[in-house]
């Protein structure tokens, strides 16, 4: 009841220790935003260039990505609490379910962004359209589903 | 070299134990596809209805999701190997980097799908557009980024 991070009307649940599956971070995202308050609410394609730095072991896995203009990026929102089922994002105190929001506060705080790939410098992607904090751990990169045409023919 | 799951030209890397972050599964996805060979390559909006079953603790977190027609679903591709940096999806043996594919084989095997929300039955979402195996563990559900208008005004 006295948790200072909870707004009126918000609801938490008791969670078991996580551990159903484990992630390996594959790199880091560098953005101009060092504090949560500085981050834009949603990324914009005319926003600043940001850097996605892949760990060296994964550099060969970028081969072919240069053919795509739009890519999907997954990252771990490592400063987010995970136990809110209802949240109060508005100043009027109205609450809404966590799954009806794109808030970073969620049971598995994974952010997904669709970004424009400006260029690839070795193992670093230069992109526009991110909205996350500087230093955010990277989970995955893949071609945008709309642009991606499977190399293998559709199954019959 | 004798790994029967590796195609010619594919490359693996040695990975440390995972553990940078831990996921909690929040439910299960029920689809008509029990074997990988049966799954469609990409989900279709005119595909069959599938069920996303949330664990009871998360049912209140669905409140408000009914306002959205299109939702984003994240799930764990629990049968996928995670150490391929280059893959050979075509029969001609050409290889391409893992991050230039939407293959389930990736360092963190998280699938993302954009699906049509047909209806919500209690704690179960009925959707169209999935392509994953029956029983796939659920990680997250959120409104499609295109449809989602933040309830809070943009920051100045």
Automatic annotation (TrEMBL), chains A, B:
The keyword Zinc does not apply. Keywords: S-adenosyl-L-methionine. Transmembrane segments: none annotated. Residues 23-153 form the TsaA-like domain. It comes from the Bacteria. Coiled coil: none annotated. PROSITE patterns: TSAA_2. Belongs to the tRNA methyltransferase O family. This is TsaA-like domain-containing protein. It comes from Roseovarius atlanticus. The lineage of its organism: Bacteria, Pseudomonadati, Pseudomonadota, Alphaproteobacteria, Rhodobacterales.
